[in-house]
Write a structure and sequence with these properties.
180 residues, five-stranded mixed β-sheet, globular
Amino acid sequence: MVLSPFVRKGWALLAFCLAAIPFPADALAIDSVSIRYLDSHPIPGRSMERQEFRISRTPSAHPGSESSSREIDRYFEELSALLVAGHLDHDWQLAIPDAPAIEIVIERNGKKRTLVSCHTLLERDPEIAVTKRGVVRVAREARKERLARESEAFRRHREAFEAILRLSLERLHSRFAGGS
């Protein structure tokens, strides 16, 4: 398609004007946490389930505004503290093929972190422990001892994943069910 010189100049002028408008970088930044339940491999003849929710905020663009004055700001401050405590400065995955999993995608300060794990779902069975190498069967009440043999980094990552999930579910509950 060939555009007339008049139309081309109009588009060029519009592009120039938009480029000249100063937008503060963090005025448009959105922090978010997306959590998805990923069902296990589909079994023929059975429905698959999918659930997801997202918590997001657009930080105030006004200088001097109190950053932790709102619940949403405190949520993101706690989230950041959990990432630091768990040394989750990179993506982390504890997934087993064909098993259900939970995916947490955190976008904060322009950085994206993806955490995936199946341990919170599979360990509902008291005789199952999910280790770095996969699922192991353990005697009832022996899960803690088995997981204590895993590396400190692995345990920290698991604990941070659980804490982030718990914090996010509490936030969701407080907004929709009025909290407890």
